[in-house]
Specification:
The structure is a homodimer.
Chain A: H1 17-30, H2 43-50, H3 54-66, E1 70-73, E2 77-80, E3 106-107, H4 120-133, H5 136-139, H6 148-162, E4 171-174, H7 176-190, E5 195-200, H8 204-212, E6 216-223, E7 226-227, H9 229-233, E8 239-242, H10 256-268, E9 272-276, E10 300-305, E11 317-320, H11 323-334, H12 342-353, H13 356-382, E12 387-388, E13 396-400, H14 407-416, E14 419-420, E15 422-423, E16 437-441, H15 447-465
Helix pairs in contact in A: 1-3, 2-3, 4-12, 6-12, 7-11, 13-15, 14-15
Chain lengths: 466, 466
């Protein structure tokens, strides 16, 4: 069955093909040319008609489906939605993904993962094996804290890779990092906490999330040695959410001296440290410090997730909590849900145990290091006066700019050149003393795209310097 | 590699083989004969050595793993756990699964699903297809309320199968029924509710869950026409959790007159009805009433899950809420997590859309109807004076007993005959006026097992009558 659709693309344009297809289709629908329930060509067919790659059309269709313009029915194909009105996207603050249309060619904003690299076939193998081997108990209810074998493997894995000192009983599998943070906020509130210290600059979505969980986020400045523990001591908070391995977004690593002082502080105030080890997979393996948790398993909650190493869609995260805290976390959890999907937990256990996780991370680490080198070279080439802060690795580069630069004007100028990027101010809670900066995520843009987009930013930068 | 293990089974014994294997192994470990980290045979090998079916050994190993006695390491096989101490099982009240060792041959307790029937190959096909087709957006973050295509298919499916009148925007995919109930309790509490009316008899795990969510469960008696709406009116509650299609556990169906009165009540008190449609898949299709929700989509929250039709391990549930309530539910959810696994939601969408869900339910429905007939026949044969209450279908039979019978003595006597079953009192909140009863779940025991176990109960019953 072939369905004809009057549509064309402009190959000379700088607007990406997928954006052209999407916008043309949306216009046809909005103008009423394409009526509700109208059958449109399959992505394969339209791609052939337009002589573009199929992924171009798939991307356009996906976005229009998400926006409510198209309905994809397996078996009966893709149609214009019955009620082709864009639904208001109700997102979560924590995802840090803007819901504005991505009109740009390159997206250098943080908050995305390199999901193109998702190891589909290996994951399918793990799901298949887990399900074929699943016994009656595996298919039934598991403890809300997680499937035993998964907790056991996670405990071993975190110990091996990050020096985390924990037991399976103190590991909880959570619905992503988000649920872990929500559980901890609730436990802290139940224990009389009113505030939670956070790093400034840091993750604005997390501050919003913490506030909605009933705690006031209190910003603590960060310098080249990481969190300013001296200012934390003066803050009155008794718990802090921190990224000691690789500060988000500046890349600073918490110094050994500050680690010790931080733990002393936690003991002195009878408080807790929440260690968000979000990007450890992408830090250089040599010279790395073990997790902060290893210094004080009784005071540090270690938190991680599969979102940055596999895909956010899995919604798999984990906590390794002080034993004394675990019962409280489990108690709150038991009032919210009965745990995450057991089948995915079993698949993830196989993914760890077969070595697939290590292999996948090694591959991505090599790729991200290449990308970071491109950012370094291109910054030196196109942004004279800019400094790349922080250590090696990670998923984003923090480019500190000369004092005179108008950061917001630069962000706007980059956007007009089809590059989406955020300025340092976006990540600021209250500390406005930092020099202007750009935060460049290279999670989703490859080396060539990075070179081109940084050249575009460089052109905008030089125009602003004039 | 073969590993020898000194173990034997007694084929003459009434103790099931899996229980024998499990208990012998546990004893060897507890006595120190099997030391931590000792490698034991694969389930395949031990099954061959003992000349039993492999599932016998798999079941024993699984339970010992869950109890912390064994560690199963893919690649290096099964070993005695390093620290072979039974971990305290932290369960959820809502699962209604006892964590006592199932020493019995037959388990007729409610709260389990027929996971043996889980359509593994069809589910694997759906997961594989979903993952192979997943675009960048599918692998990233979805709205916390659920993947758009899944919500759309659920809205269509619930309308087709149960007459539910809803829109995709008002459907939320939840982590099982449990999370849906937790979210609703929280929203009700935020709106000033202090109590939630529940059916009595009903589901004790739910009462506990509701209490932990901060609402007081208030029991409303049930008769042959379902919930006593007149008593609900007098209760002071402004919301009720109800099973109108097939009351749990008595099987009563809410009459048409009471449905109308119930909705009038909800409007009068500006309240809400939560319709738990837990077993509609297994009710006879002829003469069924549509969901209560269809009479008042502005007052009824419809709730369902995949736990009874596929497997609890999936943790997939759904709510169809009044539009006016949806924003509040989404607001609470956004502070708890960022939704369920997108990959499983996409797989479930395919499972619905391909017709696999309908086919699977039809198969199970036929099987459960056969089992119910066996219960009916065997009850007439072995339990003179007992009455099977309720309509056709479902997952459990409510056997009302003559007044003179000591229900608890019967439950104990059944257990001594290797049958686990619960009495009506187990499901009672405050209404102690009901005659004695047994609640027989046939979700996990086949026709032959039902015949044998009911004969055992009958022997115990006749001894008590003497």
């Amino acid at each position: 069955m072939t369905w004809h659709l009057a549509l064309s693309v402009d190959r000379e344009s700088r607007v990406p093909l997928a954006v052209q297809v999407r916008d043309s289709l949306r216009r046809l629908i909005e103008e009423g040319a394409l009526r509700p329930a109208t059958r449109i060509p399959s992505s394969r067919q339209l791609a052939a008609d337009l002589a573009v790659s199929r992924s171009v059309v798939v991307e356009a269709y996906e976005q229009l489906s998400a926006e409510g313009y198209l309905a994809t029915r397996r078996g009966s194909g893709t149609t214009v939605a019955e009620c082709a009105q864009p639904a208001a996207a109700v997102g979560s603050a924590l995802t840090l993904v803007d819901h504005e249309p991505a009109e740009a060619a390159w997206d250098l904003r943080t908050g995305t993962s390199n999901v193109q690299a998702f190891p589909r076939q290996e994951w399918i193998r793990c799901v298949t094996a887990a399900l074929n081997d699943a016994g009656r108990q595996d298919l039934g209810y598991s403890p809300p804290a997680g499937v035993p074998v998964t907790r056991q493997l996670l405990a071993g894995y975190l110990g091996r890779v990050r020096g985390v000192r924990t037991r399976p009983e103190d590991v909880m599998v959570t619905s992503g990092f988000a649920q872990g943070l929500a559980l901890l906020c609730r436990v802290l509130r139940d224990r009389g906490h009113r505030t939670l210290a956070v790093e400034d600059p840091g993750h604005p979505g997390e501050w919003e999330f913490i506030a909605s969980a009933g705690l006031v986020p209190v910003g603590i400045p960060v310098d080249a040695d990481g969190l300013r523990v001296d200012l934390l001591e003066a803050s009155g908070a008794r718990a802090v959410l921190t990224t000691p391995g690789h500060h988000f977004p500046t890349g600073a690593r918490l110094s050994q001296a500050r680690r010790e002082r931080l733990i002393a502080w936690a003991r002195a105030v009878d408080g807790y440290l929440i260690e968000d080890d979000y990007d450890n997979a992408y830090l250089r393996r040599t010279g790395q410090l073990p997790a902060l948790q290893s210094l004080a398993p009784d005071r540090v909650v270690y938190a991680g997730s599969a979102s940055k190493v596999l895909a956010p869609a899995l919604r798999l995260g984990w906590l390794a909590t002080p034993s004394e805290l675990m019962a409280s976390v489990e108690h709150v959890r038991a009032g919210w849900d009965i745990g995450c999907s057991g089948l995915e937990q079993l698949a993830f256990a196989r993914f760890i145990d077969s070595g697939a996780l290590d292999r996948h991370q090694r591959r991505l680490r090599a790729e991200f290091h290449k990308r970071r080198e491109v950012v370094r070279e291109q910054t030196a080439l196109h942004l004279p006066g800019a400094r790349l802060l922080g250590g090696e690795g990670g998923l984003q580069a923090y480019l500190q700019l000369p004092d005179g630069i108008d950061e917001e004007a630069l962000v706007r100028a980059a956007r007009s050149r089809s590059v989406l990027v955020r300025g340092g101010r976006f990540y600021t809670l209250t500390d406005t003393t930092r020099p202007p900066a750009l935060v460049v995520s290279y999670a989703t843009v490859g080396c060539a795209g990075l070179a081109r987009s940084l050249a575009e930013i460089g052109t905008a930068y030089r125009e602003l310097l004039r």
